[in-house]
Amino acid sequence: MKIKTRSRKVNKAWLHDHVTDPYVRRAQAEGYRSRAAYKLAEIDEVFRLLRPGQVVVDLGSAPGAWSQYLRQRLAGRAAGADGAGGQSAESVLIALDLLPMEPIEGVSFLQGDFREEAALKALQAELGGRPVDVVVSDMAPNLSGVAAADAARMSDLVELALDFAQAHLRPEGALVAKVFHGSGYSQLVEAFKRVFRVVKPFKPKASRARSAETFLVGIGLKERDVGAGHAQAGAPPAVGTAGSAESAA
Ligand SMILES: C[S@@+](CC[C@H](N)C(=O)[O-])C[C@H]1O[C@@H](n2cnc3c(N)ncnc32)[C@H](O)[C@@H]1O
Questions:
Q1: What is the CA radius of gyration of the chain?
Q2: Residue 230 C-alpha to ligand 1 middle, in angstroms?
Q3: Which of 91, 167, 240, 244 could form a disulfide with 87, with the two C-beta atoms 3.0–4.6 Å apart?
Q4: Are the beta carbons of 91 and 53 closer than 8 angstroms?
Q5: Cα(96) to centroid(ligand 1), Å
Q6: What's the predicted TM-score (pTM) here?
């Protein structure tokens, strides 16, 4: 009984936030599939990771707001989810999710579980050996409410994204991954620091203050971690206000 009352309160609070949230309204007005687009937009504004011509992988892409934003940036457009024109010729955007995703022009979508070998193989086949400039991961497990179990599942997904980035990024490439503050967070920061030269935690304004989510941004593979992209170095992403030397969380 008590649990029911609490969950009703939580639902009411969520509904109130959703209806009054300026990012929800903005997403509706600008044609984004969710307000999540503005989290990635803020990260991109600060770290200047995206530009036309890049190869980008979007992990945990459904319903598709990040893919919509990525597509515009790769096409050289500033804003608006459904503007005219397509991806520029050389840009590649591959998205993956457990769930189906409505098609987006210029996005190659793969449905699969990133924890499974089959999904990894499908991603690699789609990449066809091309080194990746930016990997973004907004993957989050379905929350059970058991904090330790949820944190472990989240860490598992982030570590897999980190392994993928390490193996497929160009030397100057970048990984943006959603993480939860709490159990396992500092270990993830350490894992990022073992792989990347620059590691920054970033909580976008569009991420609700009471949400435990935050994002880790890793830029530039450390020498020993330079993987598939080693042979074909491209222009390094400019590190914005946040970037200089070694970083700390
Ligand atoms: C917060 S949503 C992503 C929202 C998305 N970035 C957007 O802008 O629309 C998290 C997504 O992660 C996906 N996900 C969770 N675990 C996954 C897994 N093991 N493999 C692939 N996708 C996963 C979920 O299905 C869900 O769609």
A1: 18
A2: 29
A3: 91
A4: yes
A5: 8
A6: 0.85
Q: Residues 6 or more apart from 247 whose CB is under 8 A from it?
A: 193, 198, 199, 200
Active-site residues, by number, are 178
Of 87, 79, 55, the closest CA to residue 168 belongs to 55
Ligand 1 mutation pick, 61, 155, 208, max ligand atoms within 8 A of CB: 61
Cβ-based neighbours of 173, under 8 Å, separated by 6 or more? 131, 132, 133, 134, 135, 165, 219, 220, 221, 229, 237
Tokens of 122: 């499908």
Q: Which position has the token pair 């993928």?
A: 164
Unique residue bearing structure tokens 């840009």: 91
Q: Which two tokens stand for residue 200?
A: 């920054």
Read off φ and ψ for residue 66, nearest 5 degrees. Answer: -65, -40
